[in-house]
Write a structure and sequence with these properties.
- The chain is α/β, with parallel strands linked by helices.
- The protein folds into 3 domains: about 130 residues, Urease, subunit C, domain 1 (Roll), CATH 2.30.40; about 120 residues, Diaminopimelate Epimerase, Chain A, domain 1 (Roll), CATH 3.10.310.70; about 190 residues, TIM Barrel (Alpha-Beta Barrel), CATH 3.20.20.
- The chain contains 17 helices and 23 strands.
- Strand 4 and strand 5 form a beta hairpin.
- The relative contact order is 0.13.
Length: about 575
C-alpha cells in the first residue's frame, strides 16, 4: 500500500491482488482509494469514516477500511492517510478571488504600517518593476484606517511624492480609493466636478479634491485604467485559483465581475486549468433603472447557467459601505460621529425598480448591505419584487448583513432570502469596528448564531470577502467558535457556534448559493471528490489551535491541486 503523500502514489500490483483475494468481485473499481483516515464527512449525521473511494472525479464509496477493499482493482491507487483528518472541500461564499492573482502587478501596500512605509512600497514597486513614466500604478487592497499608525487615508500630495511621474490608483477594502494628482487629472476631476450619484469626491477646505474617492466616485478614475488583455486575465484567474487551493478552498463565489472577467473564468475552465468551482456574480454599476434594464437586455449570459466549474450566480448591487469605513448605512449614528448614519451608495427608488426588473428578466439579485438601515432597504426592495413576481425559491441574497437584527433575519426567512455573512470582519478589524461603532454594535456584528438558528445551513454560509479580509478559512472557523480577535478580545460571545456548526457553514452551506447542494459540500457517494487533508484534527485540537491548522493537500474532482512542501 502506498503511503502519504498522494503525489507519490502509483498503481497497485501486489497490494491490490492481496485485497482482491479477500473480497468478492467489486461492484466497480475505483481510481483511488484512501484508507486509515479520520474523515469528517460532514453529512447529515456528521459521520466519521476511515476510507473513501474515488472514481471519475466523484466519491464512489465512504466507510471503513474493510469496506473500501471492495473497490480496489489492479489499476487502483491506494493512499494511506496515516490517521490524518480529512474534511470536504471548503467553500468561501463571498470573495473577490480574481484579485488574489494580481499580486505581481500591484504594489503590496498591505504590508505598510505607516504612511511613509506605504509611500516607500509604491516607490519601490515602480523601481523594481521598471514601470515606465506615465503608466498606471495600482496597489493591493488594504485598510489604512485600521492598518496604519496614522489611522487615515493617504492624500493625493503624499501619493504624488511617492510616484511623481505615474498616475496612481490605490484601492482599499472596497468603497474607498485614493488617487494622486496625475490620476485625478486623467479622470477629468477638478474642483467643479460634481459628485456622481451614490458617490463622493472628498475635498479640502478650499474645494480641491483630496484624492479620496468614495463609492461610485471611484469609477471616475478606475474607468480610465487600461483593462488587462484576455490572456492576462486568464493567467490572473488561474493563479488566483491555485492560491485559494493552498487554503483548502475548492469552491467560491466571486462577487463583483464584469462580463469580460466572467468570460475569463469560462476560458480557464474550457482549457482544463480550473481548480476552484466558481459562482460568478455580474456586477451592476448602473445609476438608473433605465440603464440597468438596458444592461439586462444586452447581457451576454443568463442567470443560473454554466457548468460544474463556472456558474452565473446573480447580479451584484452595492447599497452601502462598511463598518470600518464609517459608511455602513445604520439606524443609529456612529459612536464617534453622532451625525453620521453612513452612506447609501445608490438611489433607493432606482434600486427598488432595478430589483423588480432583474426579477422579471430572470436574474436574482445579491445586494451588499452591511448596516441595519441598508438591510431594511434591501428587504423592502426584495419584498416589492416578490409582489411583482414571486422570489420564493430563487435564493435572492443579502450580502454581509453584518448588523442585521433578529427581526430582519426573520423577515429574510419569510422571503426565502439568503444572508451570506463574513466573520473575518471581526478579526483584524474588530477593534476598529468597536472604535467607530461602539461596543453595543460591535458585539452584535456578524450575528452567526441568529443567522444559523433562523435560516439554517441552507440560508447562510461562511466567507471572507477576501482580499478585503484574510482568506484563511481556519481563522474563520476559529472566529466563529471563539468570537475572538487576534488580541483575544471577545466580541458577541452569544453569537458563537459549535465546531460542527462552523464547519457546516464552510462546507454544506455554500453550495446552496449556486443550487449545487446535491453535488458538493460533504463527502458522500455521488458528490464531487473535493476534499482537504489537514495538519491536525479539527475536532480535537484546543480552541486556540484551530486557527493554526494547515491544509496538507487539496483535492478537487479527485485530482491533487495543492500539496504542502
Amino acid at each position: 500500500m502506498m503511503r502519504f503523500p498522494l503525489s507519490k502514489c502509483l498503481p497497485l500490483v501486489g497490494a491490490a491482488a492481496l485485497l482482491l483475494g479477500c473480497a468478492s468481485t467489486p461492484p466497480s473499481g475505483a481510481d483511488t482509494v484512501y484508507v486509515n483516515g479520520h474523515i469528517l464527512t460532514v453529512d447529515k449525521a456528521f459521520s466519521v469514516a476511515q476510507g473513501v473511494a474515488v472514481k471519475d472525479g466523484r466519491f464512489l464509496a465512504v466507510g471503513s477500511n474493510a469496506e473500501m477493499q471492495r473497490y480496489v482493482q489492479s489499476a487502483t491507487r491506494m493512499v494511506d492517510l496515516q490517521g490524518r483528518t480529512v474534511i470536504p472541500g471548503l467553500m468561501d461564499s463571498h470573495s473577490h478571488m480574481i484579485a488574489a492573482g494580481a499580486a505581481e502587478t500591484t504594489a503590496p501596500v498591505i504590508r505598510a504600517r505607516t504612511v511613509a512605509q506605504a509611500q516607500a512600497i509604491i516607490g519601490e514597486f515602480i523601481k523594481a518593476k521598471n514601470v515606465p513614466a506615465g503608466q498606471w500604478v495600482q496597489t493591493s487592497r488594504w485598510h489604512p484606517p485600521s492598518q496604519l499608525q496614522e489611522r487615515r487615508y493617504l492624500t493625493r500630495q503624499e501619493l504624488d511624492a511617492a510616484a511623481p511621474d505615474h498616475p496612481v490608483f490605490v484601492e482599499t477594502v472596497g468603497h474607498f480609493a485614493m488617487a494622486n494628482s496625475r490620476a485625478l487629472a486623467l479622470a477629468g476631476i477638478t474642483r467643479t466636478t460634481p459628485d456622481p450619484v451614490g458617490g463622493k469626491i472628498h475635498r479640502d477646505a478650499s474645494g480641491e479634491a483630496t484624492g479620496l474617492l468614495e463609492e461610485t466616485a471611484m469609477d471616475l478614475v478606475s474607468n480610465k485604467i487600461p483593462k488587462p488583455t484576455p490572456e492576462q486575465l486568464v493567467a490572473t484567474i488561474a493563479t488566483a485559483q491555485r492560491i485559494y487551493n493552498q487554503s483548502g478552498i475548492t469552491s467560491t463565489i466571486d462577487a463583483a465581475l464584469g462580463e469580460d472577467e466572467i468570460e475569463g473564468y469560462r476560458t480557464v475552465a474550457a482549457r482544463g486549468q480550473a481548480s476552484v468551482r466558481t459562482g460568478v456574480m455580474w456586477m451592476s454599476r448602473a445609476a438608473t433603472a433605465a440603464e440597468f434594464e438596458q444592461m439586462l437586455k444586452n447581457a451576454r449570459f443568463k442567470d443560473d447557467t454554466g457548468d460544474d466549474w463556472v456558474r452565473t450566480a446573480g447580479i451584484k448591487i452595492v447599497a452601502d459601505g462598511g463598518m470600518t469605513l464609517k459608511s455602513a448605512y445604520i439606524r443609529e449614528a456612529f459612536a464617534d460621529d453622532p451625525h453620521n448614519h453612513g452612506t447609501l451608495a445608490l438611489d433607493p427608488a432606482a434600486y427598488k425598480q432595478s430589483v423588480v426588473l432583474a426579477n422579471r428578466h430572470g436574474w436574482r439579485v445579491g445586494t451588499h448591505a452591511v448596516g441595519d438601515a441598508a438591510a431594511d432597504l434591501v428587504l423592502d426592495a426584495y419584498e416589492g419584487a416578490d409582489r411583482d413576481r414571486s422570489i420564493q425559491g430563487r435564493r435572492f441574497v443579502l450580502i454581509h448583513g453584518s448588523l442585521m437584527t433578529p427581526e430582519q433575519i426573520q423577515r429574510a426567512k419569510r422571503l426565502g432570502v439568503r444572508v451570506d455573512a463574513q466573520n473575518a470582519f471581526m478579526w483584524d478589524k474588530a477593534a476598529t469596528v468597536e472604535r467607530f461603532m461602539g461596543a453595543k454594535l460591535a458585539n452584535r456584528a456578524v450575528p452567526s448564531r441568529w443567522l444559523l438558528d433562523t435560516l439554517g445551513v441552507q440560508g447562510t454560509a461562511a466567507g471572507t470577502d477576501n482580499p478585503v479580509n484574510l482568506l484563511n478559512p481556519f481563522v474563520g472557523l476559529y472566529i466563529m467558535v471563539t468570537r475572538k480577535d487576534p488580541a483575544g478580545n471577545v466580541y458577541g460571545a452569544d453569537q458563537a457556534l459549535t465546531r460542527e456548526e462552523a464547519l457546516r457553514l464552510y462546507t454544506n452551506a455554500g453550495p446552496y448559493y449556486t443550487f449545487e447542494e446535491a453535488k458538493k459540500g460533504s463527502i458522500e457517494p455521488g458528490k464531487f471528490a473535493d476534499m482537504v487533508v489537514l495538519s491536525a484534527d479539527y475536532l480535537a485540537v484546543p480552541d486556540e489551535q484551530i486557527k493554526d491548522i494547515k491544509p496538507l493537500q487539496t483535492i478537487v474532482g479527485g485530482k491533487l491541486v495543492y500539496e504542502a512542501r
